[in-house]
Design goal:
alpha/beta
């Protein structure tokens, strides 16, 4: 058996590396993305989710399997080979996404929205034992072509976090949804549009380390500052509708560039689709107390992160945790979110463990 595994490892290594070395087909030909979530952000290890409603985070979708993709996933799963780029790592095949939705339907798991869970938390209502919230980051066009039709088919809703300024562009190797596509999904009621900032989904160097730029607003590029101000001017009617006539007062203090960007993101989404974008996903998974305060002043109800924990009255509405889905995630991992130990608490046996 050991010899077989060694031979298989050699085969997979050659299958993964030779096409790229020879300039042939079979590899991921998209340009290396520079601003996508890194693989290290995926939830790892064993987690006890505790009581509450798990919130799942998807990114991108693949309409079908292909041989090259299968080889890369197998090499990553079996041998830990660096077979998947950032984009592929976060990409789920359509068949597996449908398996997730079918599992929710067949096992009586209610797909709720963040607002519905919020209402239970604020009203001191009982949190359902079998419920889940679905979220998707980045608004790659595969959401429109793959995930959206399946959500309609199963009658389930998902929140889509949109980096508003990147809509309709080729961004970091992604083919982004257009405003028309986003509006169509919003109007259907099956996709709830939220904010993933306007232009702040990138990192900047600080003391030799790349950090999310919104952590250090003094590092935000000048062209980002200028274009965000142009967006605020372009969408000022929408900004006033969402944040009130005194919205300019929010542009004060160290985090004023962040506040302006968040206001611009909400205004752009509202102007182009009619969606109010009440929730914010900080890029790369995490903000902090100061940033969440800025988000609250910009009119957001809450923020979501990538910390693996369920949403409950104890966790509140700010820094809501999410369980990440990757190319390695299976329906069995999703099912583990709803397992119970002898005490009745959820047990995250494997969940979306990469």
């Amino acid at each position: 058996m050991a010899r077989f595994r060694n031979l298989l490892a050699v085969f997979l290594f050659l299958a993964l590396t030779m096409p790229a070395a020879l300039g042939g087909c079979g590899g991921d030909k998209t340009p290396a993305p520079t601003h996508l979530d890194q693989m290290e952000l995926a939830n790892q290890g064993t987690f006890d989710g505790g009581p509450g409603v798990p919130v799942i985070c998807y990114h991108y979708f693949r309409p079908r399997f292909d041989p090259g993709y299968l080889v890369r996933v197998a090499g990553s799963l079996l041998f830990g080979l660096p077979a998947l780029g950032d984009r592929e790592f976060w990409t789920l095949p359509a068949a597996e996404f449908e398996n997730h939705l079918r599992y929710f339907r067949d096992h009586g798991i209610t797909v709720m929205t963040l607002q519905e869970v919020q209402a239970l938390i604020e009203g001191q209502g009982d949190i359902p034992d079998k419920a889940v919230v679905l979220t998707i980051d980045d608004a790659d066009r595969s959401v429109y072509t793959v995930a959206y039709p399946l959500l309609r088919k199963y009658g389930m809703r998902a929140h889509l976090f949109v980096p508003a300024a990147e809509v309709g562009s080729a961004w970091s190797g992604l083919d982004m949804c257009s405003w028309d596509e986003l509006k169509q999904m919003h109007d259907s009621g099956f996709v709830i549009l939220e904010s993933h900032t306007n232009r702040l989904h990138y990192k900047a160097p600080l003391r030799g380390i790349m950090e999310p730029v919104f952590w250090n607003p003094e590092l935000i590029d000048r062209d980002v500052l200028v274009t965000d101000l142009q967006d605020l001017n372009r969408y000022q009617d929408a900004v006033a509708t969402l944040a009130g006539p005194g919205w300019e007062d929010l542009l004060q203090g160290r985090f004023r560039p962040v506040a302006g960007d968040l206001l611009a993101s909400r205004a752009a989404i509202f102007h182009n689709t009619g969606a109010r974008a009440l929730w914010l996903a900080w890029p790369y998974g995490f903000g902090n107390g100061d940033l969440d305060s800025v988000a609250a002043r910009a009119g957001f109800t809450g923020t979501v992160s990538l910390a693996p924990r369920a949403m409950s009255p104890e966790t509140g509405l700010w820094d809501v945790g999410r369980y990440t889905v990757t190319a390695r995630t299976t329906t069995a991992d999703i099912a583990a979110l709803f397992s119970r130990d002898d005490s009745g608490s959820p047990v995250i046996a494997r969940h979306a463990d990469p």
